[in-house]
Amino acid sequence: MQDVILSGLWPATDTPWLLAQAVSDPDVLGQIRSGFQNFVESGQVWAMVIGIVIGYAIRSITG
Known about the structure:
Blueprint: H1 2-9, H2 28-41, H3 44-62
């Protein structure tokens, strides 16, 4: 089935394409932790909390 799909998309090729990506830092959990720490240290977490509280208050008043 895959050969039929590939030949329908690329009739001049007989081999399927291989897509790859070079990963410079494979520590995904470390990147998430670093991003969350930056989110907290920059004060954006407080802006999010205040926005949720104000949004909930407005929603309860209008709805």
